[in-house]
UniProtKB/TrEMBL annotation:
Keywords: Carboxypeptidase, Hydrolase, Metal-binding, Metalloprotease, Protease, Signal, Zinc. Belongs to the peptidase M14 family. One of its GO terms (molecular function) is metallocarboxypeptidase activity. It comes from Rotaria sordida. SMART domains: Zn_pept (SM00631). One of its GO terms (biological process) is proteolysis. The keyword Protease applies. The active site is at 240 (proton donor/acceptor). Residues 1-274 form the Peptidase M14 domain. This is Peptidase M14 domain-containing protein. It holds the Pfam family Peptidase_M14. One of its GO terms (cellular component) is extracellular space.
Length: 280
């Protein structure tokens, strides 16, 4: 990532020039939006289409129709709401939550280091001022605690969990805390291969696959280690979206739709793979 300031300023100018309407038909899917914009759009969708409960492609695309019939989906568009809002007002590259810590002027914990699985060991920091601060204790953050509670309440019914991040173009499975592969690694990694093959076929974007620890480095307290190791969600994945570093966390808006298109193709392929193994 070169000249971060210039990239941010260019994106800010473009954002100001192309503010989208709150009208549902004019909502720009190729722009980044504040959390307030997103909430307003959702509210407007509910008001405009109160009976709409299925995707537009349901009944038209046979794959989508089958997958919607086969699974229930729980989608959390923004995991770290306070942190996301802060990136719009103060620090564009902020990654942590915004909770108070034991150190004045050092806020938040890394949500992907705060889960209660091999918590705060490798790849994590005990320093509240560090970006990878693991929190005062496991599940100290309301964001992670509430998502974990929801998943635990659905224990035995969830077969797939995907945590989307950026950037690096990686489709990864457990473990994060150790390079030793879990017993079901091949089953999980074969799913990753199905996903990235379908993803690459859309725009030619190349992804790597494997476990988090093997591809990046050992990291403790991660989301997918908990969902796999504690909640028994076999097909648990962490996905790092575009790109590989040219823009990094400041991905241009003109890549939003292409990234979404290829990611959707990868998801369809993965879910069809999971469907065959769960309902074989």
């Amino acid at each position: 990532m070169n000249d971060i300031g210039a990239i941010i300023e260019r994106q800010r100018i473009l954002q100001n020039l192309t503010q989208s309407s709150s009208n549902t038909n004019d909502f720009a899917y190729d722009k980044y939006h504040t959390i307030e914009d997103i909430h307003a759009w959702v509210d407007q969708m509910v008001a405009t289409y109160p009976d709409m409960v299925t995707p537009f492609t349901y009944g038209q695309d046979p794959t989508i129709t089958h997958l919607v019939d086969q699974f229930d989906y729980y989608i959390l568009p923004v995991f770290n709401v306070d942190g996301y809002a802060y990136t719009w007002t103060k620090d564009r590259l902020w990654r942590k939550t915004r909770s108070k810590t034991s150190v004045a002027n050092c806020y938040g914990a890394d949500p992907n280091r705060n889960w209660d699985y091999d918590w705060c060991k490798s790849g994590s920091s005990h320093d509240p001022c560090d970006d990878t601060f693991c929190g005062e204790k496991a599940f100290s953050e309301i964001e992670t605690a509430q998502v974990a509670k929801f998943i635990a309440d659905q224990r035995g019914t969830i077969v797939n969990y995907i945590n989307f991040h950026s950037y690096s173009q990686l489709w990864m499975s457990p473990w994060s805390y150790t390079t030793t592969s879990p017993a079901q690694f091949k089953l999980q990694d074969d799913g990753s291969i199905q996903a990235i093959n379908a993803l690459t076929a859309v725009h030619g974007t190349q992804y790597q696959h494997g476990s988090v620890a093997q591809i990046i480095s050992p990291t403790s307290g991660s989301t997918i280690d908990w969902t796999y190791g504690i909640a028994n969600v076999t097909f648990s994945y962490g996905v790092e979206l575009r790109d590989t570093g040219e823009y990094g966390f400041l991905l241009p808006e003109n890549q939003i739709i292409p990234s979404g298109e290829e990611t959707m193709a990868g998801l369809e392929a993965l879910l069809m793979y999971i469907d065959k193994h769960v309902y074989a």
